[in-house]
Write a structure and sequence with these properties.
Family: Belongs to the glycosyl hydrolase 31 family.
Shape: globular
Domain P-type: 44-97
Largest sheet: 12 strands, mixed
Number of strands: 51
Main location: membrane
CATH architecture of the domain at 749-970: Sandwich
InterPro entries: Gal_mutarotase_sf_dom (IPR011013), GH (IPR017853), Glyco_hydro_31_AS (IPR030458), Glyco_hydro_31_C (IPR048395), Glyco_hydro_31_TIM (IPR000322), Glyco_hydro_b (IPR013780), P_trefoil_dom (IPR000519), P_trefoil_dom_sf (IPR044913)
Subcellular location: Membrane
Number of helices: 21
CATH class of the domain at 749-970: Mainly Beta
Strand content: 15-25%
Radius of gyration: 30 Å
CATH superfamily of the domain at 749-970: Golgi alpha-mannosidase II
Length: 995
């Protein structure tokens, strides 16, 4: 036939091979050895007349569910491998290479795919494949969108309603798509400038698309893959040397750092960044809110599986990692701008007996001189753990909050979505026709619970069990009517009158539920909770059970055991949302995002200020409304380490305002670990110490050594808050990260690709935390394409190189400024309220290769609601610095104007200045500057300019200049280590850091 290719012949030959034909094969080999070698290469090992084997590093698992066997594998039309591999993660049951869809028709805007004419023998293990499908591509600027879905309008699939912006994105590069037209369909996404394939779906196993099982496999462009979540990752870069499956379903499950754990946590992110072998970077996100999982493998490749929706994939060409994030956020939304106070240190604990207990802890930390901005109040303050109530032991809470606010502090309160059905809030909700998550039909309602309460009797509201001691209902924040959100805002407004909070912390919003489908839930016999009957989903008939018991339950269930259920720790999958229009099966992963959106609206309307929202459960786009903490971690060194990775990952996911529970949530924190965690946590954008009621107190004032280390680390943080705030401003305006992996700044340096325990603040600061017990030094890799200056007091301004750095517990961890940046700072106080009043200073770290540096500052009142940056008043300054043998010049350009008075710029530190300044020539706008308090250290090449009220930034012209001339003495600046010193470098490092 004309369409028959040489590969078709070889595949047919492979399929016909069996041990019985060995003799004829050998005869053929003697006649044509070239053909036999090629056939062996293509076919691999032929097993009993079945399809050809696939290399063990490039397989698509045909049995991702438990209990695979030879018989069950072959029943699915797949290949069972009898070999024993040293790598135990290799799938033994896998799809043959001829599995997938065939091209049926090609038109200008879409390709129709059909299953009937496909040549593979394997069947979809979890349902009949839908046919035909349509494959469509579309561009939004530089962003490429590929959609694969049923072609029939009657088979419309669920799409997450998350307000995708699909904004125009710019890139210096572009992507194009190649598709096959014959045989099994596959497509490749390629970079136009290099023709590198970013995706290549020709991987054996191919595309499957049943109602409740969709699968797509693709090769990665390289092994340098980052992202996917929310899971615990012990390394920043995924380990693609083996097969690993990660669950993705929002679940009330704390991060387990004790060993490799691939279970699903609170949020869902089918998003990754990949650095190609040439240093270019791209990213991709699959927008799907159903239960899903992903397997990464040594191809390098991945297999994506979901049990609902469609394949809606967006590709971002970069070509830098930071541009990838900006392009991704142009789709899902740019991050919200936190209030300035929210960048201060925050302190919390679950388990205070009364208000006096918490007051005492806050007092002792303030008296220890530890900078503190925001105490958090956990559910202890509530009456019977009910939202919008205050317990008897906390009756002075409102007055205490007002006193803290008078002292310049702010207060964050926790709220859960589950509403006690005997509460006044629930009664008002019913009266206002608020939407709740419901049973789909009356006959499924759990009447033995429902009829306990007059207010729920006769309704379909699905009732569960959470912290209150009566059953709870779950508001549906996705309600298309305004009733639910308006009620939510009004409840906060009512409570704010008694306790005037500044920020809100929304927990348990996966949503979490206790004891679903369990006969003996954990709270039975617990003194803190009555033995009320749990939610049971099992009354449903066969047609309803498909949602709670689908053919494939994903790794998000199987991880916990072969009989584990999707409804575990949450509500029934067959529940309905949007007043019966949608299934909870489809929308569960969106619950936290919808609640965050409603809660931010409440903060803005109730407080009339920007405030902050912290959400435990998140999804792409949640960063527009909330920050995130990494959940209920453990007080162990491993958890300290993975927190550094988690913060970097969530910056990639679009939530830069993120941090961990410093010192760990569960278990008793050890003193040294807590000290080191505070030194690290001072560089989380969201910096909070928090633990639970079963653990010993761990606030920093608990130990003198921890108190001193925390005070020093927090004061350092507060000094650099203008820079951190400016990074958040830039992220909110243009998209991008605040904390970023080192490779984001050095994507061509492959030594940076797996530096998960070092990270950057923006482009300018490198943080090197101590993450090992007993360590007095820490090893760091510092890219040689940049110059690095120490910012610690003991070696301030000195040039630093890769290697072991001194890191005693009694001093700051290494924090380094990158040559070429200008960083705004302020002298620190113990609150951000006081710090903001202090004069600015500038840190100018010179790039010695060209004698330049640049930076920026954003400034506003730190608390006003920002609805539109286009009309919002704020200051933006751009700083540039140049130096040569004759003169130096700092240029300050005011880009935009605010509406507040700014502190003056009184101090400037210039690091790496190779030319001694002539003090008498320093001028600002032609006016001579008094330099009596200024100095130049020739040995350190450090120029300190000090003059009270030197520059009024808010009054200066649009462009202002500070200039000076040199004394004509040129000081050599070492930009690279001279080769003649190579043998001395180990000794020099020791002398430098230890003497």
């Amino acid at each position: 036939k004309e369409s028959t290719t040489f590969w078709d012949v070889l595949i047919s030959f492979c399929e016909e091979m069996s041990p019985k034909t060995t003799k004829s094969f050998n005869t053929t080999a003697m006649r044509c050895p070239q053909l036999s070698l090629l056939t062996l290469f293509v076919c691999g090992t032929c097993v009993g007349g079945q399809l050809s084997t696939v290399d063990s590093k490039r397989r698509v698992d045909c049995f991702p569910d438990p209990n695979a066997s030879s018989a069950s594998c072959e029943k699915r039309g797949c290949i069972w491998d009898t070999q024993n591999y040293q790598d135990t993660t290799v799938p033994l049951c896998y799809f043959p290479s001829g599995t997938g869809y065939s091209v049926f028709n090609v038109s200008d805007d879409e390709i129709l795919l059909t299953k009937e004419n496909s040549s593979g023998n394997a069947v979809n293990p979890f349902g009949k494949d839908i046919s035909p499908l349509k494959f469509r591509k579309q561009y939004y600027g530089s962003t490429l969108n590929i959609r694969i879905e049923p072609s029939s309008a009657s088979l419309r699939r669920f799409e997450p309603d998350i307000d995708l912006l699909r904004g125009f994105t710019y890139s210096s590069d572009s992507l194009y798509v190649e598709t096959t037209t014959q045989g099994i369909f596959s497509f490749s996404v390629k970079r136009r400038s290099t023709n590198v394939a970013l995706w290549n779906t020709s991987l054996g196993g191919g595309l499957m698309f049943a109602d409740q099982y969709i699968q797509l496999a693709t090769y990665f462009a390289s092994n340098n893959v980052y992202g996917f979540g929310e899971n615990v990752h012990h390394t920043l870069k995924h380990n693609l040397n083996k097969y690993t499956t990660w669950g993705m379903l929002a679940r009330d499950e704390g991060p387990n750092a004790y060993g490799e754990s691939t279970n699903n946590l609170y949020g869902v992110y089918a998003f990754y960044v990949c650095v190609e072998n040439d240093g270019n970077a791209h990213g991709a996100v699959i927008v799907n809110s159903n239960p899903q999982d992903i397997t990464t493998g040594p191809g390098p490749h991945m297999v994506y599986r979901t049990i609902g929706g469609m394949l809606d994939i967006y590709f971002f060409p970069g070509p830098t990692p930071e541009e990838v994030i900006q392009q991704y956020e142009a789709l899902v939304g740019k991050p919200m701008m936190p209030a300035y106070w929210a960048l201060g240190f925050q302190l919390s604990r679950y388990g205070y007996a009364n208000l006096s207990d918490q007051q005492a802890i806050i007092k002792r930390n303030r008296e220890a001189g530890i900078p503190l901005d925001a105490p958090h109040f956990d559910i202890d303050y509530m009456n019977r753990n009910m939202d919008f109530t205050t317990g008897q032991n906390w009756q002075g809470l409102g007055g205490y909050v007002r006193q803290l606010q008078q002292d310049g502090l702010h207060v964050v309160l926790i709220f859960d979505p589950a509403i006690d059905v005997i509460s006044e809030s629930f009664t008002r909700a019913v009266e206002k026709d608020v939407a709740f998550i419901e049973w789909p039909r009356d006959d499924l309602v759990q009447t033995e619970i429902q009829n306990l309460y007059n207010v729920t009797n006769g309704t379909k509201i699905m009732l569960g069990v959470v912290w209150p001691d009566r059953h709870t209902a779950f508001p549906d924040f996705s309600d298309l009517k305004p009733n639910t959100v308006e009620w939510w805002v009004d409840e906060y407004r009512r409570y704010h009158k008694s306790v005037p909070f500044d920020g809100l912390w929304i927990d348990m919003n996966e949503p979490a539920n206790f004891g679903t489908n369990e006969e003996e839930p954990w709270y039975f016999g617990n003194d803190d909770h009555p033995n009320i009957e749990p939610l049971n989903c099992s009354k449903s008939n066969a047609s309803d059970r498909q949602w709670d018991y689908p053919p494939y339950k994903t790794h998000s269930a199987y991880f916990y055991g072969s009989t584990s259920e999707l409804a575990s720790k949450t509500l029934c999958m067959l529940a309905t949302t949007r007043r019966g229009q949608d299934l909870f099966y489809n929308t569960k992963n969106l619950y936290g995002l919808y609640e965050a959106k409603a809660t931010l609206k409440a903060v803005h309307e109730v407080t009339q200020k920007r405030g902050i929202v912290l959400s435990r459960s998140t999804f792409p786009g949640a960063g527009r409304y909330a920050g995130h903490w990494l959940g209920d971690n453990q007080a162990i060194w491993e958890a300290l380490r993975v927190s550094a990775i988690g913060v970097q990952e969530f910056n990639m996911f679009g939530i830069p305002y993120v941090g961990s529970d410093i010192c760990g949530y569960s278990g008793n924190a050890e003193e040294e670990m807590c000290l080191r965690w505070h030194q690290l946590g001072a560089f989380h954008p969201f910096s909070r110490n928090h633990n639970n009621n079963n653990a010993a107190p761990q606030d920093p004032a608990q130990w003198p050594t921890v108190a001193e280390a925390t005070r020093e680390a927090n004061l350092f943080r507060y000094r650099y808050l203008p820079y951190l705030y400016s990074l958040h401003f830039a992220s909110s305006i243009a998209g991008g990260t605040v904390v970023r992996p080192v490779f984001f700044e050095f994507p061509r340096d492959n030594q940076t690709y797996d530096l998960g325990l070092q990270f950057m603040w923006g482009p300018g600061l490198m943080i090197v935390p101590v993450t090992e017990q007993g360590a007095e030094t820490v090893s760091a890799y510092l890219p040689t394409s940049a110059t690095w200056y120490s910012l610690r007091d003991g070696d301030y301004g000195e040039t630093v190189f890769s290697g072991n750095m001194r890191a005693r517990k009694t001093e700051m961890i290494p924090v380094l400024a990158r040559g070429g940046v200008i960083i705004p700072r302020q002298p620190p106080e113990t609150t951000t309220t006081a710090s903001r009043r202090n004069p600015f200073d500038l840190l100018i770290a010179i790039d010695p290769s060209n004698g330049t540096a640049a930076g920026f500052l954003y400034w506003d009142d730190g608390e006003s609601v920002i609805s539109d940056f286009g009309s919002y008043p704020f200051y933006e300054f751009r700083f540039t610095f140049t130096t040569n043998a004759e003169s130096s010049k700092l240029t300050i350009m005011r880009i935009s104007n605010g509406n507040i008075r700014m502190p003056t710029l009184d101090s400037i530190d210039v690091l790496g200045l190779p030319y001694a300044p002539n003090m008498s020539t320093v001028k600002y706008m032609e006016e001579t500057v008094d330099m009596t308090q200024s100095s130049y250290d020739e040995s350190k090449k450090l120029f300190k300019i000090r003059k009270q009220g030197m520059i009024a930034l808010d009054e200066q012209p649009t462009i202002a200049e500070l200039i000076w001339s040199t004394n004509g003495l040129t000081k050599m600046s070492i930009t690279r280590r001279p080769s003649t010193l190579a043998a001395l470098l180990p000794l020099l490092r020791i002398l430098y850091w230890f003497v």
